[in-house]
Design goal:
The complex is a heterodimer. Chain A is an all-alpha fold. Chain A has twelve helices and two strands. The longest helix of chain A is centred in the first third of the chain and has 42 residues. The chains are: A mainly alpha, B alpha/beta. Chain A: Keywords: Cell inner membrane, Cell membrane, Membrane, Phosphate transport, Transmembrane, Transmembrane helix, Transport. Chain A: Belongs to the binding-protein-dependent transport system permease family. CysTW subfamily.
């Protein structure tokens, strides 16, 4: 009783001229406010905690492999589980090559679609085309995989029998990935291009700029940041894509410095071997998962760094 | 209100109890996926005949070994047999239950169906990426009367870990020392050349679509889809067709009595009619069981399957174990003991 009067008195100091009832309401509101703030903070921290926990558990469970032969693991040219030779090079190479092929194809196409949709598209077509692109983004990856193995691989084999003797390979996987990430990059690029104020755009047209000049000189510099974000998101998806890639990559576990030949990617290798793996093989596959984690992290960090440098140079 | 909820709870508990009581009349097992169709067919027939059901989880050979070691199931099943010391380590015993074979298939337009002949040595060189074209001298020597095209060879293999991989690589390692040293046997191996496809269906599809491809699938799969297969030269130098008879010949000619713990992979067996890539799928049980009644139920089921399961197996294109092998297995069951050391069989 004594304490509460004292607290009430000090509150009265904080809210001069307020009645006891008002003070109580104000205090309750302040409490709710603080609780809300704390809980949002907790959610945000939980993400960090989760990320750390995943990283730590991957490190712990792959420790056997990493501590025993970390160098062989990164440079070994084959993944032969039966001989306990776990070389991640073929999988790392395959992951990077397929993702780079995918981005190299997807970026120009996506930007092209986005520019057409925002600058040139007749009003009637704009909505249906936009919705189609968004629908493409919603197709499950297994369907792209089936399409790749049923249609694309035989087609490539038919057109270029010397380059694609079996249809499948790193380039085939890269093509499937490109089609998978085009809708992502397109949707984000279109959305950020639409944020360019019409007045800026129309001023440029009014000065006699061509569409290309408007896009290059006005739109790109304004929304560079957002478009880069779309590309990074697409790249992230390409690096980790599993099902579709497993179908068409050829699953060869030897390192071959090839673009069109068969290979494997980290995600495909894990998907193929994890269910039946135990002991050293399981530990090595978990180490492979850690490598994928780090590659994705490095790609995101590099993209952000490059972006910051461009921004600084522009400023 | 309280009364009704109490009685509902009681009814629920009683119902659960009923389920547990009937669960005692089922057998539990887990493991290999390859024999799953025939085991479940046997289980259906056995349920009709004796009223005892089987709960078999086809989780893969590795999972089956884990489950039986942890004693969560009465029996485990594995496509690859365990070695004697591995069995002893966990107090397990094993026996062969059903057989199948692996058949190399190909897609080579211009040659007559099922006419191409190969030996193990050449097959291993093809899969090691050393023979790259169909008109290679090594293949031409084996097929003097076939006009071979100069098509490039695309070896197709199983991408995921599988018992089929184990049998195939075990055979190639037996007949080609270099293959054994560089690639070796195992459930998942690294192939230097060619394309990895998923499951039998994936391999068959890739072979069908790729001119010049060679692959390997389980016999049941090759037969049901009428694929163009290779005639292999066996240990006795004869070229044999893959068939139930040639698999049975391999099993019958095998020396089971000198194989401790029935550790025998039936590849490259002697006998003029033996198909060289034959393998059995194995059952694993503890030598000292905690629940003798459950163990006896399982043994009775397998006894019944040896005696009556042949037709069902043949219909599904599996190969039942020959009678003499089944008898040796039944004899070995005498080693299974209950908690007090009492014999369970017969």
């Amino acid at each position: 009783m004594h304490v509460s009067t004292k607290r009430l008195a000090s509150s009265r100091f904080a809210f001069p001229g307020a009645s006891d009832k008002e003070i109580r309401i104000l205090k309750r509101n302040a409490l709710i406010d603080r609780a809300f703030e704390r809980s949002t903070q907790a959610f945000a921290l939980a993400v960090l905690l989760l990320l750390g926990a995943i990283l730590v558990s991957l490190c712990v469970s792959s420790w056997d492999t990493l501590s025993a032969h970390a160098v062989d693991f990164l440079t070994g040219d084959r993944w032969a589980a039966n001989m306990e030779m776990f070389g991640a090079l073929p999988a790392i190479y395959g992951t990077l090559v397929t993702s780079l092929i995918a981005v190299a194809i997807a970026v120009p196409v996506s930007f092209g679609i986005a520019i057409f949709l925002t600058e040139k598209c007749p009003e009637i077509l704009r909505r249906p085309l936009g919705i189609t692109v968004e629908l493409l983004a919603g197709i499950p990856s297994i369907i792209y995989g089936m399409w790749g193995v049923e249609m694309l691989a035989p087609f490539l084999n038919h057109i270029f029998p010397d380059l694609f003797p079996a249809g499948s390979g790193l380039a085939t996987a890269g093509l499937v990935l490109a089609i998978m990430i085009i809708p992502f990059i397109t949707a984000i690029s279109r959305d950020v291009m639409l944020t360019v104020p019409p007045i800026t755009r129309e001023s440029a047209y009014g000065l006699g700029c061509t569409t290309w000049e408007v896009v290059r000189g006005v739109i790109f510099p304004t929304v560079r940041h957002g478009m880069m974000g779309g590309v990074v998101l697409g790249l992230g998806r390409a690096l980790g894509e599993t099902m579709a890639v497993t179908f068409v990559i050829g699953n060869n576990l030897f390192f071959h410095p090839t673009i069109t030949g068969q290979g494997t990617s980290i995600a495909a290798l894990i998907a193929n071997q994890f269910p039946e793996a135990d002991g050293a093989q399981r530990s090595a596959l978990l180490a492979l998962g850690l490598v994928l984690f780090l590659i994705t992290f490095a790609v995101l960090a590099t993209a952000r760094y490059m972006l910051n440098r461009i921004e600084r140079r522009a400023a | 209100m309280l009364k009704t909820s109490c009685s509902a709870l009681l009814a629920g508990v009683l119902a659960l109890h009923g389920i547990q009581a009937s669960a005692q009349e089922t057998m539990t097992g887990a493991g290999a996926t390859f024999p799953y169709p025939v085991y479940s067919q046997w289980a259906d027939d056995y349920q009709d005949a004796k009223g005892i059901g089987l709960n078999y989880q086809a989780i893969g050979s590795g999972g089956g070994i884990k489950q039986i070691t942890a004693k969560t199931v009465t029996f485990g099943a594995s496509d690859a047999p365990l070695k004697k010391d591995e069995l002893d380590e966990h107090g397990l015993m094993q026996w062969p239950m059903i057989m199948g074979g692996v058949v190399p298939v190909l897609n080579l337009p211009g040659t007559e169906k099922n006419s191409l002949k190969l030996d193990g040595e050449t097959l291993a060189d093809i899969y090691a990426g050393k023979i790259t074209h169909w008109d290679d001298a090594a293949i031409a020597d084996l097929n003097p009367d076939v006009d071979l095209p100069d098509t490039a060879i695309t070896p197709v293999y199983r991408a995921e870990g599988s018992g089929t991989n184990f049998l195939f690589t075990h055979y190639l390692s037996q007949v080609n020392d270099e293959f054994a040293d560089t690639i070796g046997e195992g459930k998942s191996v690294a192939w230097p050349a060619g394309v990895g496809a998923k499951a039998n269906a994936g391999v068959a599809k890739q072979v069908a679509e790729t001119e010049g491809a060679i692959g390997y699938v389980e016999f049941a799969y090759a037969k049901q889809n009428d694929l163009d297969h290779i005639r292999l030269r066996n240990h006795d130098g004869e070229y044999v067709e893959p068939s139930s008879d040639s698999f049975k010949a391999a099993a019958a000619n095998a020396d089971w009595s000198n194989a401790p713990g029935f550790y025998l992979v039936l590849t490259d067996q002697v006998g003029a009619d033996s198909w060289p890539i034959t393998g059995a799928s194995f059952i694993l049980m503890h030598k000292q069981v905690e629940d003798p009644a459950a163990a006896k139920r399982v043994l009775e089921f397998f006894d019944w399957a040896y005696a009556n399961g042949g037709d069902a197996a043949n219909e599904l294109d599996y190969v039942p174990m020959p009678e003499n092998v089944a008898d040796q297995v039944r004899d070995s069951w005498g080693d299974i003991e209950g908690p007090q050391g009492e014999s369970i069989w017969p």
